[in-house]
Amino acid sequence: MTTLFALYRAERGVVLITALLMLIAVLLVGASAARMALQGERAARAERDRQIAFQAAEDGLRDAERDIGGVAPAPGRAAMFAAGSALGFADGCGVGDDGANLGLCRHAAPAAVPVWQALDLAHDGAHSVEYGQYSGAAMETGQGFLPFKRPRYIIERMACHQAGEEASAAPTYCYRVTAIGFGARPATQVVLQSVYRKAE
Q1: Cα 179 vs. chain centroid, distance in angstroms?
Q2: Of the given ranges (41-55, 119-133, 175-189), which has the lowest mean pLDDT?
Q3: pLDDT value for 54
Q4: Average pLDDT for 56-63
Q5: Does residue 9 sit within a domain?
Q6: Structural domains in the chain (count)
Q7: Cβ(70)–Cβ(196) below 8 Å
Q8: Is residue 33 part of a domain?
Q9: Between 1 and 27, whose confidence is greater?
Q10: Does the pLDDT of residue 11 top 70, yes or no?
Q11: Is-contact 60 180, C-beta < 8 A?
């Protein structure tokens, strides 16, 4: 009888230990699942923020094209993009002292650092153009799923050649636009470039 009782008590102890081990395993699986869900949510939020910045950078490129195309309320700005004109395009980009040549950059020499890499587009308001500054376009920022600030851009004037164009022909010019867009968080930034040729 005492042997059966001792055996029964030992079995109760084993059941308790087994139940505790199973409980710990369930808790570990639950904690792991919660961590994976949080990581997935964080990744989705970061991707959404990158998409916001990407869209803002695209908007910056389109605004620069409007600027080059002459949709510029600022007097004298359209003259900067007249056919064959190099007026206003400065080394290191114009600073816009007179309000007309801000963000207009002379194309760097082949051995030099490209202008768009030399400037800090995210913080350089002295050399880059804010979205809508010359086109008058508006953009909401700073709340919800909107960029925390407006995109900025610079424009480089450079010689370009079309297919089938003779080497002896007078050079034509196109514009390389570099735009930076921002996400809802300041740390999220996307830089895009396009080459734009103005219709003559």
Answers
A1: 8
A2: 119-133
A3: 93
A4: 93
A5: no
A6: 1
A7: no
A8: no
A9: 27
A10: no
A11: yes
The C-alpha atoms of residue 89 and residue 43 are separated, in whole angstroms, by 42
Domain containing residue 91: 44-196
State the Rg of the chain over Cα: 30
For residue 58, is pLDDT > 90?
Answer: yes
HSE (CB half, 13 Å, CA atoms) of 98?
A: 8
Structural domain includes residue 12: no
Is residue 20 assigned to a domain?
no
Phi-psi region of 178 (alpha: psi -120 to 50; beta: other; left: phi over 0): beta
When pLDDT is averaged across residues 72-92 and rounded to a whole number, the result is 71
Contacts 24+ apart (CB under 8 A), 173-176: 173/84, 174/198, 175/64, 175/68, 175/81, 176/107, 176/116
CB-neighbour burial class of residue 58 (10 A; exposed 0-12, middle 13-18, buried 19+): middle
Give residue 45's pLDDT.
84
Output the pTM of the full model: 0.74
Spatial distance between the Cα atoms of 86 and 175, rounded to a whole number of angstroms = 11
The DSSP letter of residue 171 is P
